[in-house]
Amino acid sequence: MQLFTAPVQLGADSFALDPAIRDRVLLPLTLIVILSGVLRHVLTLLVATPPKPQPLLAVREQRAITRGQLLRFNSSHLPPSSFLALRSSLSQAYVNGSFLKAPPPKPSADGVPPNPFEDPAQMEQMMEGLQDMMKKQAVGFVPQMATMYLVNRFFTGALIARIPFPLPLKFKDLLQRGVQLLPSPSSAAPFVADASWCSTSSWYFLCMFGIGPVYQLLLGNNSSAADPSALAPPPPTMPGAPAQDMTKIFRAERENLDIVEYEWVCEGVEERLLERFGRA
Fold first, then answer.
1. Do the Cβ atoms of 62 and 22 come closer than 8 Å?
2. Where are the transmembrane segments (predicted)?
3. Which ranges constitute the DSSP H helices of the chain?
C-alpha cells in the first residue's frame, strides 16, 4: 500500500505534502504505537506472578534496618531520654542478633560448603524467577513485532512530519529511512528534501523511544512495562549467589547510630518564643 504521493515542488529544498497524510498516516501510526504500549502493560499485569508473602521473621529482619534509619533521620524530634533509650535498645539488638531471621549456616564437617543446587527452596525460587522473566520478555516482544509489521506493511514510504528546527544533512538517513523520493517534473534528478522531514519508519522509532511521559500520564507511575525504552527486569537470583550479610548490615547501622549528631528541636524553645513574640 503506497501512501506517499508525488511531491509538489515549491523551491530548492521544500515541498508540500498531501493533507490526507495527517489523517491516514500520522494520527493512525501514533495511535497504534500508544495502543501497543497499553497492550504490553495490560498483558504484563495479567501474566505477572504475584509476590509470595514473606515469613514474619524475614519481614522483621528487613524492618529492623528501617527502624534504625527512621531513628537517625528523626532523632531531633525526640526528647533526649527517649532518643537515648531507643538508640541503646536498637544497638544492643543489632549486636546480639535479635532481629536475625535465622543463624548463619554452619559449614559441613568435612569443610565443603553445601551444594545450593540440592536445596529445593532455592531451585524453586530460581525456576519461578526464570519463568516470570521469560513471560515478561515474550509479552514485550510479541506486541512490538506485530506493531513493526503493521508499520512496514501499511505505513511505509511516506513523509509525515517535519522537525520544527533545522538539522544537518547527516540526520537525513536517520529521519528519512524507507523513503525514495520521485524525480522532480522539471529534472530527472531526484528531489532533495530537507533533513528535518521525518518518514513513517523514523516517526515510529521516535514515538517508541520518546513516548514514556505519555504512558506515565495514561497509566500512572507503574508504566515501565508499556515503555520499550525502560530497563529490562533484573535476572533471577541464581543458587549459590552471595546473599546479603545481615550481620554486617546491622553492625554498620549500629555504627551510624553511634555517630548521630543529636540536637533536640525543643531545646530552648521558651527563650525563642519569648524573643519572637515577647516584644509584640
1. no
2. none
3. 20-21, 27-47, 56-73, 80-96, 120-154, 172-175, 200-210, 212-219, 246-258, 269-277
What does the alpha-carbon distance between residue 269 and residue 278 come to, in Å, rounded to a whole number?
13
- pLDDT tens digits for range 197-209: 778 878 888 887 8
pLDDT band at 70 (very low <50, low <70, confident <90, very high): very high
Whole-angstrom Cα distance, residue 190 to residue 167? 20
The CA distance from 182 to 229, in Å, is 35
Which candidate, 125, 122, 123, 132, places its Cα nearest to that of 232?
Answer: 132
CB atoms within 10 A of CB 42: 15
Confidence of residue 267 (pLDDT cuts 50, 70, 90): confident
Cβ of 205: how many Cβ atoms within 10 Å?
Answer: 15
Beta carbons within 10 angstroms of residue 267's beta carbon: 11
3-class DSSP state for residue 190? strand
Pairing of β 159-162 and β 197-199: antiparallel
Q: Are 185 and 160 in contact (CB under 8 A)?
A: no
First to last CA, the chain: 82
Q: Is the dihedral of CA 108, 111, 116, 117 positive or negative?
A: negative
Task: Say if residue 81's pLDDT is above 60.
Answer: yes
Q: Which cell goes with 194?
A: 530537507
Report the chain's C-alpha Rg in angstroms.
Answer: 31
Taken as a whole, the chain contains a residue count of 280
Dihedral angle of Cα 205, 208, 210, 214, to the nearest 10 degrees: 150
